[in-house]
Specification:
Oligomer: single chain
Shape: elongated
Strand order of the largest sheet: 2-3-1-4-5-6
CATH class of the largest domain: Alpha Beta
Distance between the termini: 47 Å
Strand content: 15-25%
Helix content: 25-40%
Structural class: alpha/beta
Radius of gyration: 26 Å
Amino acid sequence: MTFDVGKKYGNAPAVVLVGRPNVGKSTLFNRLLRTRRAITDPTPGVTRDPVAKDAFIQEKPLRLVDTGGFKLDNNRVDEEGALDILVVEKTLETIKTADLIVLLLEAGVFTAEDEEFIALLRPYQKKLIVAVNKTEGGRREQESFNLLSFGFERLHFISAEHGDGLADLEEAIIGKLDFSRVAESSPSEKEPIRIAILGKPNTGKSTLSNRLVASESSLVSDVPGTTRDVVEGAFTYKNRDFVILDTAGIRRKSKVTENIEYYSVNRAIKAIDDADIVFLLIDAQEGLSDQDKKIAALASDRGRGVVMALNKWDVMPETKNIFEAMRDRIHFFFGKMEYAPIVPVSAKTGFGADKLLDAAIRLYGQLATQIDTGRLNQALERWLEESPPPQGPQTRFKVKYAVQVSSRPVKFIFFVSRIHAVTDSYISYLRNKMRKDLGFKEIPVEIEIRSSRAPKKSL
């Protein structure tokens, strides 16, 4: 199965950056996006998965794809060698679906890998642009003209790091693309539901991502830490558009030693901020770990909906009530997230994928709910009657009124007479009543206590 670059702007064309490792593809990718999206590092082979992102170049929408580096030496029998083979295969598959290929070479450095890659690209000459990188200030331009002997129409001399020659390259990219299809496509009426797949390394995140997107956009390997960048894919389910963010596995801080993995973990955590909902993938055979708890708490603190997906359910013993027992165990040891739905799945077979997406649609509806102020304060009156605030000399306070200030994430402000008298237990009481009565049963709800005479208290 080839990698579908997941065009978001209807039928926007896809531009794929290719080349051997460490020629500056990810730097060019970030430069064209005008943001730091892909991880860049001097270590060859940092990018493994194709990383796709929507971009506007000269006000034209397109899909920009950064790929793993092409390596000639694929005879190694260790784990890294096996991953190198997967990276090359994925890069070649991505090329097939591209509307335009930008081959990046390095000024003054031409290797056997470059030569073999050029040979593999010959069938795609009509949709190929060649850029020679690291030519800041005219460095090594003259000797790079020898590359024209391979039959290229033109060379574009650039410096991805400094931005030299980028305007010329962007103009060439736009000039080679057909944007007539974009005008024919109509944007979705609803925003896509953005889902980040998080969890410990090797729990099946990339397998689930590929299953949902119905492609092989993420590399899948038994080697923990295969995914480094956040890999984005798109699909439709029940007439709803989804965007999936496949992330690097998050290990305990004490085990994060490699610089590249450090950036990958930070990027995975940042994906929480880019998502509406987090699928927390838990190895059903291992059960909930302390690291899983930290990831769930991190997502909850940011107001994201969390679905706990018990993966590898296909290899679990067929014992009666095993799911109920595992669910109750999770609730017992992780009461803070008792509201979050738990779904048994198998990323490998597809079991439970529909229930996982149904939960995502349900949680998104709750996250997007906006409660009218009048209805909210009518409910507040009932809650105060059912359980009035303490009436002691030091603990007495009045709840004057409440307003909802945001959805996605859901946040409310309660105005009170004496902010320091409000206890955490009473805030928990209000939050539980809101979940039960206002339709926020499965999502985090932030409550801020505010008084005009004192600083705010947020929990």
